[in-house]
Every structure is written in structure tokens, then in C-alpha cells.
Amino acid sequence: MSNSALSNFKKFSEKQLKALTWWCANSPYRNRDAIICDGAVRSGKTVCMSISFISWSFYDFADSSFAICGKTVTSLRRNIITPIIPILRSLGFDVREKISQNFIEISYINKTNRFYLFGGKDEGSAALIQGMTLGGVLLDEVALMPRSFVEQAIARCSLDGSRLWFNCNPEHPMHWFYREWILKAEEKNCLYLHFTMKDNPSLSQKVIKRYENLYSGAFYKRFVLGEWVAAQGVVYPMFKEEVHVKEPPDISSAQRFYISCDYGTVNPSSFGLWGCFNGKWHRIKEYYYDSRAVGEQRTDQEHYDELEKLAGNINPEAVIVDPSAASFIQCIRRNGRFNVIPAKNDVIDGIRQVSDALKKEMFYISPDCKDTIREFSLYKWDEKSVRDAPRKENDHAMDDLRYFVTTALNAPEDDFFVMSVSR
Known about the structure:
The protein is built from 16 helices and 14 strands. The protein is α/β, with parallel strands linked by helices and about 425 residues long. The strands form two sheets. The protein has an eight-stranded mixed β-sheet with strand order 3-4-5-2-6-7-1-8, sandwiched between helices. The chain has a six-stranded mixed β-sheet with strand order 13-12-9-10-11-14, sandwiched between helices. The longest helix is centred in the N-terminal third of the chain and has 18 residues, at about 75-90.
């Protein structure tokens, strides 16, 4: 692969060009063993790294195997494979993708290399890549992968001249990848490139402004400024009573309904009735029971009776329940009235989605939902944690609200058909 092939692209920033050409013979970084690109979202690092990785593999190898890894194979296809294939073909590469085998064979002139796709979503993923012999690995979203998977992928790169390619957005500053790789980049002979949105010439000022308005707090510092910072203070600083607390319209005018539930026996239980009015969701009313404050625990059936009262004559499309509340889910099913959906329960991703929904005013809270309003001001990050985590207090209405946003408000139209459980 020659440097002249890169001239087919539009203008690149200086940092993008470094990511594209660091391995070339005349590059001052040619002798580095790895590259790390981190920083803001939409900064142009992913596509540049992907093209560079494929090009380098043909510069240094032939008839060899490589790995391209993401948090999941689905996200990998979305972030890298789908965008890069037409670019590679325009540069003269022959690309043959075998989707069912998560495998891509790429040829250029008289050379062919093999690229295997892996998802590193949990600790068990390390076994998937074990036993391979690789010339290099590209780890996209590496900060979202477990350390065991990343280290297993690195160990597979045993061919002479093999190199490592890392790409990520920032996370918590105590994150293992930040401490073991970014802070030790020189020690590990890595080229470290930190990107901001200004390093992507294709972004207009209008688009940059939109991303700046999309995030706040720690997520703004990470995804817009590209900083490895700890989440501090309240989890939802963008929540404003004067903006997000509104009287809902007449309930008879709602087009859709859901109920979200965070269930507890010793801990509080929080249920919320949600209605959609002309595309805007309102938390109309809620049930909140704190057995410690009252001094009396309630049974599954007693909580279910309160669920019936909350719904009244309304037949919601589903009741969304904390997936760990197995006995309460079974209680709802036994009674036969409601369709039950186990909630999506990735806490940090859910908090990001709720933050986004608040910024966009995608839902409102009735003044009658006093416990939800109270928890918004008390729900805080755990500053003593070595990873992002909210404190396990004043979080029950916040959890049921998060279940609604991630499982109903942001769900694809056909998602509930797949997830629904027969009554």
C-alpha cells in the first residue's frame, strides 16, 4: 500500500494524518509497537485508524491473520466495518465479507490477508480469541472491554512485526486502560494521539455546537473535551424543575401508556405511570413505598395490588420491571392482567440515555411525583468508587425512570414484540 493512495481522501487534519501514516517507512514513529487514539466523539479517529490498520497490514504482511475487536460484533460492524468497506474498495482493495463467520478476506494486488471480528463485551469473551496467531489487532472502544479480553487479544499478536491499535473515548481516570496504557504510553513504546472535535475537518461548527449542547457534566468533559475525568456531584445536573416539572394533559388524551417499576422489599419500591401525549411523555403519577420509613414490609401481592391501583382503568402496553425482581415478575404474570418486560439495566449507558432525554425535553414529571422530584436533587455519583457508579441511595425512582427511558422511550418500534412475555 503506497502513501499516494491516501490522496483520494479529502483534507485530513495533522493528527489524523499521523494516525494514517505512523507505520510508513519515512515516519518518525515507524519503530513504535502500538498506537493509542483517544478523545472526543466525532473527532475522526475511528475511520482513520481503521483505514490505517488495513493499509499497514498489507505494507508489512501477506497471507496473515488479524483481529478487529469491538464491544460487540454488532457495534463493530456499525462503527468500522460498514463505513470502511466502500472506502477500501474505492482504494483498489478487493473485500469479501463472510457475515455468518464474522470474517473478512481482503486482497490488494497480489496479497491477501484475513480479518476476524470479535466482540469483547464480558469476561467470557477472552475465550473467543484464545489460540489464534495474529499479525496485529485493532481494539475499537477498548475502554468498554474487560481487561481479560484485551490482554488475551494482545497476547495473540506473536508474529514478527506485529503491532497493537487502540481507540476509545475517555472514561473514569481510575480505569485500568488509562492507568496501564495511556499514562505508560512512552514506557510501552506507544504513539499516543489525543483527539478533539477540532481534529476532524469534516465537522461544521453547527454540528460541533450540537454535540456541545448534547452533553453536560462529566459526559461533556469526556465526549466533547475528551478528558478522562471522574463523575462528580448530582447525576443529572441538567434537570430543572422549572423546565421538566409540568402538569400532564388530561389523561384521556394520551395515546400510549407504560408503567416502570423498581422493586424492593427492604429497600423502597417505586412505580411510575407514563403517558404519551402527541409525542411527549409525562410521568403522570407514581407509587413509592419505603418499608424502613413506614416500619412495615409489604409482600409481592401487596405491591401488585398497588400496581393495580396505579393503573386504574388504564391498560398499559407493558409493565417494565427490574430484571432482578424475579418473584415480583412472576407475581404480575400470575395475576394475568399486565404484559411484563424485564428492563434493560446497563446503569451507566442508561444514565447517559436519561441525560440525553432530559436535555432534549423528551419527558416531563408531574408535580404529584414528589419522590421522583426529590431524588433528582439527591441522586449523586459515588466519588469513592474506582469506576463510574452512582451512590446506592436515593436511587429508586431514578432506577424506575431509567428503566422506562432505556426500555420504552428509546426502544425500536418492534423491540417489544421480541421482548414481550405472554400473559
